[in-house]
Fold:
Amino acid sequence: MKLLARLSLLAIIPSSLAVPTNDNQIASRDVVLNALPMLKPQRSLSRDLVNLDGLWKFSVATSANSTAQPWTGPLVTDLECPVPASYNDIFVDRAIHDHVGWVYYQRDVIVPKGWSGEQYFVRAESATHEGQIYVNDRLVAHHVGGYTPFEADVTDLVTAGQQFRLTIAVNNILTFETLPPGKVMTSALTGKRTQKYYHDFYNYAGLARSVWLYSVPKQHIQDITVVTDYKGNTGMINYNITVAKGTTRKVQIAVIDESGKTVAEGSGATGTINIPSVKLWQPGAAYLYNFRASIVDSSKKTLDTYNLATGIRTVVVKNTQFLINGKPFYFTGFGKHEDTNVRGKGHDQAYMVHDFQLLNWIGANSFRTSHYPYTEEMMEYADRRGIVVIDETPAVGLNFGLGTPGSVTFGPDLINNKTQAAHAQAIRELFHRDKNHASVVMWSIANEPASDDKGARAYFEPLAALARSLDSSRPITFANVFFATHVTDKISDLFDVLCLNRYYGWYTETGELADAEVALTTDLQGWVKKYNKPIVMTEYGADTVSGLHTVLGLPWSEEYQVAMLTMYHRVFDSIKAMAGEHVWNFADFQTSMGTGRVDGNKKGVFTRDRRPKAAAHALKERWTNLKKK
Ligand code: GCB
Structure:
């Protein structure tokens, strides 16, 4: 993006969206709230890492007030909790399952003795939704936001070769100052606290991703940003590198292809590397170069090295087309969730690989990280598998209108300036973490906000500007809810792609597919007429009980799910501006209890344990044929 355009964008980002300051009374002076972490830790010739996953001592805070005190002392408990996993479904204990507030995880850690002279960090890949890291009794990191990493430099606190007590306190409370938003309710009858929220997936909490202890040399690479391009058959990696304070030595770059051959070299902290006879990263045909950044001293000794898997590709939106490497791309796939039995949102490599196998089997080329950032492992895996990702922030449930006409969402006591500041921070952290992934082709900054609410424009305009100022190389979008129509929606002009979530035939016109077809067609044609933009249907689907069959094709049956998807596809195929279809959902998933959900949301094309419903076979047929076109 041109500098002037960038500056004018920055002008509409108010100072209230500044990086949060640390005003929490429990945080000590030198702990910066939500400090941006370094690059994902890795083992290289100059870096080391120790995985801290396993069984940790675990306990829930005994009173709601324990947040007011910093954590001190060894945990007295007989509970052990696996990391990574959400804690809610692990124990056979309703009090833990329903707990609202802080929980504590604790274990002993030894800093390897070979790390003396290095700098070392504790890093949690996430703590849902607020985390505090303690080394022995000292608070060293504080982070709000449940799906992005944070870390603490512990070099000066523990000597290499020594042991320390690591405690991570995790809080699952959602308020109007968090994303997603929520409200804690207290029963007038028993005083029991419950967490209310406005999104349709269970509020799993805890340490659902890995925890690491890692080392870097004192002079090290802190961050790398790459933006790729190509001209003819020459690839380009535009890069920018930041190094640790006190780094006096030079940055050198080598680009290595998949066969191990160095194909280009360069030096300096910022620049462009040209790659002759480039092999592009393509959907379904990933190709990754190793962008190797090193800090080298005058005698050519390497002090630090970071290896960044880099796919060279471009993404451009042109009129109603979504172009990857100049070719129209049609999204097929799903909105997903991180969700499995017992482990909740806990990362599991077996499920990750299996889910990608199923995506491949069904002919899907993409997914959306509905409705929060997924693990970094998953983003890296998508890079390697050639799966395209729409990467979403945890801004879900900014919508109090569902089912209540005339309700207001944005206002001083509702979704307000503080929510907006948290939203800005969520955008910063997601972009910071995922900016280098070839698989990520678009940012979704929210799911189904009340974009027709009178406060929607004032809320979203600065956020869209912030997103563009942080990354001008990818389109931005949000997923639009059905009742914010092309007439009433107030924000879609701020975005590049129209992502629409629609449930004709399910929440409206239930069981009446002929009516639903007319309603869907009219709706889509309205958007086509008003905007010259690509349309991706980011949600459509029907709750379906696996094994329920009916010859009449009634709702909840496998037949109905197939018939409904088929109807949607007929409509999509008649509209030129359609650039993709993501069925809701890849698999059945857990939600909060309620009369409308029987053990969760059943819109999965696969069951929660990943068995195909009839719709999976129907989609496989369609998507495999689309691929051949
Ligand atoms: C939606 C939401 C999604 C829900 C889905 C449903 O519009 O975006 O989070 O799970 O509908 O099944 O109701």
Q: What stands out?
A: Confidence is low (pLDDT under 50) at residues 1-11, 19-29. The radius of gyration is 24 Å. The domain at 221-310 is CATH 2.60.40.10 (Immunoglobulin-like). The chain has nine helices and 30 strands.
